[in-house]
Design goal:
The chain is mostly helical and 355 residues long. It has 2 domains: 253 residues, Rhopdopsin 7-helix transmembrane proteins (Up-down Bundle), CATH 1.20.1070; 70 residues, no CATH class. Strands 2-3 form a two-stranded antiparallel sheet. The radius of gyration is 25 Å and the shape is globular. It starts with a helix and ends in a 24-residue tail after the last strand. 37% of the residues are buried.
Length: 355
């Protein structure tokens, strides 16, 4: 009887409890869940590339996407390691050594978060750059990519040297840069770039000569990135809590926002593959690797073409190719397919309209 009582008391003492002064288990649960969802999204994209298209991801866009995933995994690992147990806990319950270890983990986590976010944004830029052959669209994509690259370099250097050549765990607050101002700048610039990455695909897709319902569907997938903006605004709202004397406890909502922003940034890169994948399912997976799964739409103001004009949206015969700069391809497995993957005109007929 006494052994049974001892076992029950031991299991009760090992049970994870969440209190107002001990929120770290909840943070770890959210991190594990979002990491699992991120891996699931990655698996879906690999599925569309390998099974449907029959190739491994080797393009620049894919490499940027995979690097974003690796940085996201590394950032999530720094969130669940024992050193990060200080997050969501009352600072009075934390020893000096634990606090130093937690600050070191936070230092690495901030840099990895910036890298993950930047790689995901650059992958989206590459997607838009290849999506449209229009020179103006590509110029805007280049400008956004340069802004993101500059933002990434500035944020990494500011984070790495926020307290000079020494780590933030070795300096007092008055020897470091203003974290409130820096983090606000970082979040505001992130919102601006996300808004640009939402607006540019709409500029590309809106003029397409395609059925209004399909056009709105494609635009909706690209607008998924807009979900990142409210999450980033929440980051800005919780930034003033960071200098709080009990910041290890009060940083909990800010840390949750960081994980959500990272996941949504990763999701926004993959969700544009959902529409072509659904279109390929409508034609049958057994035919999805065929060129019939590539839809070409002319850049036009006509949003609802009549059925009698569907042939005018097709690829012209090889002797009538002419200038193809006004056509955009939406691929069944890669909406940003490279030029070398585009079908030759001799392999496509005038019946290759809206699929």
């Amino acid at each position: 009887m006494s052994s049974t009582t001892g076992d029950s008391s031991s299991s009760a003492s090992n049970r994870i409890t969440i209190t107002e002064s001990h929120l770290n288990p909840m943070l770890q649960i959210v991190t594990y869940l979002l990491l699992a969802f991120t891996t699931l999204v990655l698996s879906f994209r690999l599925f569309t590339n390998i099974l449907v298209k029959g190739r491994m991801p080797v393009s620049l866009e894919d490499l940027l996407f995979l690097s974003a995933f690796l940085f996201a995994v590394a950032e999530s690992v720094t969130m669940v390691i024992p050193a990060s147990n200080i997050l969501g806990n009352d600072i009075n319950q934390i020893t000096t050594d634990e606090l130093v270890g937690g600050l070191k983990a936070q230092y690495a986590r901030d840099i990895l978060f910036i890298l993950s976010l930047s790689m995901a944004k650059l992958s989206s830029c590459r997607n838009i750059f290849i999506l449209s052959p229009n020179d103006i669209h590509r110029l805007f994509a280049r400008i956004i990519a340069w802004i993101i690259g500059l933002w990434m370099v500035v944020c990494i250097f500011a984070t790495a040297f926020q307290c000079g050549i020494k780590g933030p765990w070795m300096q007092e607050d008055n020897h470091c840069i203003d974290q409130h101002a820096f983090l606000t700048f970082m979040c505001v610039m992130s919102i601006i770039t996300d808004a640009a990455l939402v607006a540019l695909p709409l500029m590309v897709i809106y003029p397409l000569n395609m059925v209004l319902g399909e056009r709105l569907g494609v635009m909706l997938f690209y607008c998924t990135r807009a979900l990142i903006i409210p999450a980033t605004i929440c980051q800005i709202v919780y930034i003033p809590r960071l200098p709080d004397p009990n910041y290890t406890l009060h940083v909990f909502p800010y840390s949750i926002c960081v994980q959500v922003v990272q996941f949504l940034s990763f999701l926004a890169v993959c969700v544009v593959y959902f529409w072509p994948f659904i279109r390929s399912l409508q034609g049958g997976l057994e035919r999805s690797s065929d060129t019939n799964m590539i839809s070409q739409y002319v850049l036009s103001k006509q949003s609802r073409p009549s059925r009698s004009k569907v042939a005018s949206l097709s690829i012209p015969p090889s002797n009538q190719m002419g200038d193809r700069s006004n056509y955009i391809e939406l691929r069944a497995t890669d909406s940003a397919g490279s030029k070398r993957d585009r079908p030759r005109a001799s392999n496509t007929g005038s019946n290759r309209g809206i699929v």
